[in-house]
From TrEMBL:
Record keywords: Cell membrane, Membrane, Transmembrane, Transmembrane helix, Transport
Membrane topology: Multi-pass membrane protein
Signal peptide per UniProt: none
Organism of provenance: Spirochaeta isovalerica
Name this protein carries in UniProt: Putative aldouronate transport system permease protein
GO biological process: transmembrane transport
Transmembrane segments: 20-41, 78-101, 113-133, 145-165, 186-211
Domain of life according to the entry: Bacteria
Gene Ontology cellular component list: plasma membrane
Any single Pfam family the record assigns to this protein: BPD_transp_1
Amino acid sequence: MTKRKSLHSHSTGYNIFRTINLIFMLSIILVIMIPILKIVIDSFDEKASETIFRIFPEAITVDAYKLILSRPAIFRPLVISFITTISGTAIAMTITSFYAYGLAQKNLPGRKFLMGLALVTMVFRAGMIPLFLVVRNLGLMNSLWAVLLVHAMDAYYLLLLKNFFESIPTSIFDAAEIDGCTPLQTFIRVVLPLSKPGLAAIGLFYVVYYWNQFFDYILYIQTKPNLHNFQVFLRSLVIESDTQGFEGFSFATQSLKNAAITVSIIPVLILYPMVQKHFVKGINLGAVKG
């Protein structure tokens, strides 16, 4: 009889696998972290360069951050960014969750048609010009509603949430129905609390999207610059630094660009640890069956 190979915790094969896996994962972490480290380090370096990577800044300065935070005009775009991010995420999550819950019902009339309607948007996209014409004809130009509603639902996130809803045991729905819950009460009181991991993950995706928006503001809000968000403000600041320079600040333009990137990702970095526990819980829910 031939001896079967196994990967027990004390076997040579297992140790080799762990070593290779560790090296592979560390390589991926380095590939991800090096660009981020360069951005953060260069934001504190008054001699920052696009082509040179330094472990420590050559000449430490915080002038780029002073320039960004000392501008009185920063506060209105920042407030608009928070408002549109919160409102847009709430609208998108409401539409996506209701649509996904409907598609998760096997006996829903027209379910295949509604599913196909969502899938078509993943394959065929009209493009910028037809979308602009639709927004203009609906009278949404120069309004925050254009930014909030244009991407109020993503078909990919819809399918993810639909699959998550379908993973909930049908016995829970039967128990809620026996207790006298209406379909809406079942959705709000039973499905949503059980779907916190999925909702948290997709909600974070929407938050990142709405927070990072800047092109939609430029495209749809043309005559009201006071409605532009924080990202547009940072973009204008970087363009201004390329053309004018700033009195009292001596640093490379690259330092200002990296400082702007760093400031823009801080809210997401703060938010992620708050929803990380839901990701971990989602992994545990997916692993335990029966």
